[in-house]
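Q: A reviewer asked whether we had any structural model of the full assembly, not just the individual parts. We don't, so I'm hoping you can provide one. Inputs are below.
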Amino acid sequence: MSKIIEGLLYSESHEWVKVDGNVAIIGVSDFAQSEMGDITYVEMPDVDDEIVAGDDCGALESVKTSSELVAPVSGKVVARNDALEDQPELINEDAYEAWIIKVEMSDKGELDALLNAAAYAEIAK
Amino acid sequence: MDNLLKTTCLHDLHVELGAKMSPFAGYDMPIQYSGIIDEHNAVRHAAGVFDVSHMGEVFVSGPDAESFVNHIFTNDVRPLAPGAILYGMMLYPDGGTVDDLLVYREFEPDRFLLVVNAANVDKDFAWMQEQADGFAVVLDNQSDDWGQIAVQGPEAEKAVCGALGFKEAAELSFYTFKDFERSGKRVIVSRTGYTGEDGFEIYAAPELIRNYWNIVLAAGVKPCGLGCRDTLRFEAGLPLYGDELTADISPVMAGLGMFCKLDKPEFIGKEALAEQKANGVAQKIVGIELSDKAIPRHGYPVELEDGTEVGVVTTGYHSISLDKSICFALVDSAYAALGTPLWVRVRKNAFPGVVVKKRFYQTNYKK
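A: Here is a predicted structure for the entire assembly that you could use as a starting point for your response.
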């Protein structure tokens, strides 16, 4: 059974979002990392890139598969977790600790389209 | 859907071990237990055990057994001694590949064991039957009667000859086998594998295979799934039927011409291969090493610098043992020479690489 944290928002493509004021901290769920297996490479957007909700903004590669990182919200990337470049396995170790990017949201209304923990639990199984 | 999947004799033990299971070749098979990287490294540096019970075993016997096998098989079994094994392919007349397989020459005269890919058992057996007209042979598909495990890695000999008690198997050189009798039943132990390491494959009745599985695990051998079987064989430059060999990819295109003996009087596909060798082929399987960490995957386009598509990736990984992004690709022959610069398109970007030898990893077979 994968871990789902109360209080975070989730996308149907298995990203999580933690809202901190105007900033969305984004990662992938424990279910996603468990499905992918050993993650070997994380492709992230650059700081200052504009990303659009629903579009690919990066990718995760495991030994076996690739999976797109789909932007759960739109906005400007204000930080990326560069530790993942050398240690992508941090996502396997704790998917909620290993955030990937932080985004300054251009439309907080987009958060309404995301799922709460209970709704996501229905998908992540 | 799931209830249409077949299971091997070890299925419940995989589930008990917490393996991640997935459909493969019509079977519900373990993809990984502790993780692909951990299992891969165990085989490279210690020992791992694979359930390969899904593989097909077809016995060919009768006065024409040798000439029949030589008719359908690209390699030459005539000089093969009892207890020895050959790798090669079965071909269609146009040179396309029916399957790649191992041929064991049995100790009993006029008898061979053909070990074929799980996904192809039915197709292969039907193919063999169609070709058997006019040959005094009996074809016996015993695929469902045999379990099989592969114990692979530098410590495989200790497990197979020690823990499992097949002491005489220590004398085997690569691509030879011995027969044993256990509980009144035949057990075949061959020094073969699909990992680039030393190792053994053990064929036996399902109940014996279950015992052997538990014994090698207790001896510290790591259970390994199909995930790392693919990463290991790929690094060692070994083809997978369906990726590097298909009905459209001949052994000459795949760079496996050394397993096709054109000096044999005849075999199915010989004329086509001779023509391909004489006049060249349009496409070849090559190895490509990328200079970036981006990972080439099956189906990704291979391009020239200007974006012209000249091929497609057949297998690709970020290599666990070599820490490099590498792939096999089917490319236009004009771009198949070692050192040719090629680009692989990974999502939006094309990453530069260079054609290298397909045996990415130095294999460690027992001489």
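A: Points you may want to mention in the reply: Chain B touches chain A through 18 residues (CB under 8 Å). The radius of gyration of chain B is 21 Å.
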